[in-house]
């Protein structure tokens, strides 16, 4: 009986030691530079890859004030591409979204550059080739599903309201 107790105590001691060492290894790894995340493949089906995305990513719609039948859509995609559809016009470009550290002091910033515009009539009835245009907006979050585009970082002169259509 005494041998059984000593053997099981030794096993508990070894398990505890291994557990403590693994905790140190995890803590040491956390302070090092982030390693590349594993990719799920046939040989590694349990790999998990965590990808963060900008909160603005998704499909947003903006009703044009004088034309309730027409909605202008902004599709902010994960690769920093944006597709804009307004009436017969569609545009493609790139965007950069910079969230604010303190939204009460300064709003998030959004910069878009149009790379292609099909030069058709948009929801406001205008036909204007916007290829090459760069615009900067400040994003005021009303809630998770509603944002305003504003002209200033303090949230003054907000001129457009967008509502989330798809995540």
Features of the shown structure:
1 helix; 167 residues; single chain; eight-stranded antiparallel beta barrel
Characterise this structure.
Keywords: Signal. Residues 1-27 form the signal peptide. There is one protein chain. The protein contains one helix and eight strands. It has 167 residues and is α+β, with helices and mostly antiparallel strands. It has two domains: 1-50; 58-166, Lipocalin, CATH 2.40.128. The model is unreliable at 1-35 (pLDDT under 50).
What's the gist of this structure?
By secondary structure, this protein is α+β, with helices and mostly antiparallel strands. The protein has one helix at 2-31; strands spanning 58-64, 67-76, 81-86, 89-98, 108-117, 134-143, 146-150, 158-166.
Q: Which CATH architecture of the largest domain would you pick?
A: Beta Barrel
From the alpha carbons, calculate the radius of gyration and give it in angstroms: 26 Å
Largest sheet data: 8 strands, antiparallel, barrel
Neighbour order of strands in the largest sheet:
1-2-3-4-5-6-7-8
Judging from the principal axes of the Cα atoms, what is the shape? globular
Sketch the topology as an H/E string, one letter per element. Answer: HEEEEEEEE
The CATH class of the largest domain is identified as Mainly Beta
Whole-number average pLDDT? 80
**Percent of residues in helices:** 10-25%
Number of helices: 1
Compute the number of strand runs. 8
Distance between the termini: 63 Å
| Low-pLDDT segments, ≥5 res | 1-35
Structural class: alpha+beta
């Amino acid at each position: 009986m005494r041998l059984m107790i000593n053997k099981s105590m030794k096993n508990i001691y070894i398990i505890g030691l291994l557990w403590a060492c693994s905790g140190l290894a995890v803590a040491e790894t956390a302070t090092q530079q982030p390693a590349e995340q594993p990719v799920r493949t046939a040989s590694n089906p349990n790999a998990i890859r965590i990808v963060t995305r900008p909160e603005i990513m998704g499909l947003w719609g903006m009703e044009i004030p004088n034309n309730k039948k027409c909605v202008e859509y902004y599709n902010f995609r994960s690769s920093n591409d944006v597709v804009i559809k307004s009436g017969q016009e569609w545009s493609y470009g790139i965007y950069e979204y910079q969230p604010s550290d303190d939204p009460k002091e300064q709003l998030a910033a959004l910069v878009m550059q149009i790379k292609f515009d099909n030069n058709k009539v948009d929801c406001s009835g205008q036909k204007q080739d916007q290829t090459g245009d760069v615009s900067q907006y400040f994003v005021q979050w009303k809630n998770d599903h509603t944002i305003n585009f504003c002209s200033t970082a303090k949230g003054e002169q907000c001129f457009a309201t967008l509502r989330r259509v798809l995540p």
